Amino acid sequence: MEKAVVLLSGGLDSATCLAIAKSEGFEVYPISFDYNQRHNIELESAKKIVEFFGVKKHTIIKTNMDAIGGSALTDNNIDVPEGVLNHNENDVPITYVPARNLIFLSHALALAEVIGAGHIYIGVNAVDYSGYPDCRPEFIEKFEALANVATKVTATEHKKIVIETPLQHLSKKEIILLAKKLNVPLELTRSCYAGKEKACGVCESCKLRLKGFKEAGLVDPIEYA
Predict the structure, then answer these.
(1) What is the phi/psi pair of residue 60, to 5°?
(2) CA 36 → CA 104, 142, 210, distances in Å?
(3) Is residue 224 part of a domain?
(4) Enclosing domain of residue 163
(5) Could you tell me if residue 18 is inside a domain?
(6) What is the pTM for the complete model shown?
(7) What is the 3-state secondary structure (H, E, C) of 192-212?
(8) Residue 174's CATH number
(9) 174-207 residue pLDDT tens
(10) How many CA atoms lie within 13 A of 17 on its CB side?
(11) How many structural domains is the chain composed of?
(12) In whole angstroms, what is the distance from residue 67 CA to residue 11 CA?
């Protein structure tokens, strides 16, 4: 089996990416991050999702992105705001974590090189998303080009790394329906930015999730405060 690294946060989109990679015949190697995020409860979800899918190896990288700050997800002095679903595409909310996907993909690239994986799956989206610059197609395109000159296997052995973004152009409704089709354990996923035991229901991530379930004609199986 070919191998694929899958970025797994514990949320709906990344869990769906894991299921897609498995359905496409890859031996999956999920990678998650403990970056001192406010909502690190998502890591427990990631572990449960890995167990559900019977994955053998789950890599968790510890890094202290709160030392940089600048985001409501890493700085406890910045409150998580109530979500706004209709915003200008150039408006980047305070929940954006500076360069997060660049950093995460770099770790995933290193893991891919070590295990001999030619594919990296990431659940970025450019339809129902928060406007983060590191979720946009142009970022992924540029990172893939960089990845293919950045490592020993790509620069000297001329192997290729493909950054897979199967959710890039799907609405949240479409992602949820796909997740149901692929038997993703939606009840184990966490999307809330607040980091409490129950999802807040009012942050942008919660609102996007609830909107998707409503449009899909389904009930979200997680608890909300």
Answers:
(1) -120, 120
(2) 14, 27, 26
(3) no
(4) 3-216
(5) yes
(6) 0.95
(7) CCCCCCCECCCCHHHHHHHHH
(8) 3.40.50.620
(9) 999 999 999 999 999 999 999 899 999 999 999 9
(10) 29
(11) 1
(12) 24
With the C-alpha atoms ordered 73, 79, 81, 87, is the resulting torsion angle positive or negative?
A: negative
Q: Count Cα atoms within 13 angstroms, Cβ side, for 124.
A: 23
**In-domain check, residue 223:** no
Burial 45-74 (b: 16+ CB within 10 A, else e): bbbbbbebbebeebbeeeeebbeeeebbbb
The answer for 94, left when phi > 0, alpha when psi is -120 to 50, beta otherwise, is alpha
Tell me if 184 sits within 8 A of 19, measured CB to CB.
Answer: yes
Q: How far apart are CA 179 and CA 176, in angstroms?
A: 5
Residue identified by tokens 């199986």 is 221
Separation CA 47–CA 30 (nearest Å): 10
State residue 87's pLDDT score.
Answer: 61
Three-state DSSP state, 66: helix
- Tell me the C-alpha distance between 90 and 193, whole Å: 21
187 part of a folded domain: yes
Task: Enter the DSSP assignment of 219.
Answer: -
